[in-house]
Design a protein that fits this description.
The protein is of the alpha+beta class. The protein is built from two helices and eight strands. The protein has a domain at about 1-50 and about 80-100.
């Protein structure tokens, strides 16, 4: 069942038509440590994105990172797939770097040699 859930999440967060990923919402599910360019790594137990992977071990202090905190032991959770909170989904959609964005301001400034 866990494997099937992981495959479903990969399908839902994969590329859509034209090679673009679908918009992120509170219904979009991600597997633990899913990386989204410009946003970071998804920590499924915490339903949010962070700069470092879930249970990243820092060699210098021998601590583990999860859910925006450090601890001497890795976090243990049965949650390996979840959807972000509405606020996190909105922030992630605004920060993501895997989709092209057009600049609306560029069309309002027209420069010509005739003016």
């Amino acid at each position: 069942m866990v494997l099937i859930g992981g495959l479903s999440a990969g399908a839902l967060t994969g590329c859509g038509p034209g090679g673009q990923s679908p918009p992120i919402s509170e219904q979009t599910v991600f597997t633990n440590n899913y990386y989204l360019p410009g946003v970071g790594y998804y920590h499924a137990p915490f339903r949010a994105f962070y700069a470092l992977p879930y249970n990243f071990r820092e060699p210098s202090n021998q601590q583990y990172f999860f859910g925006d905190q450090w601890a001497a032991t890795p976090h243990q959770s049965i949650t390996n797939i979840s959807a972000p909170t509405p606020v996190v989904a909105q922030q992630a959609e605004a920060q993501r770097a895997d989709i092209p964005r057009s600049g609306f301001g560029s069309t309002s400034h027209h420069h010509s040699v005739w003016s």
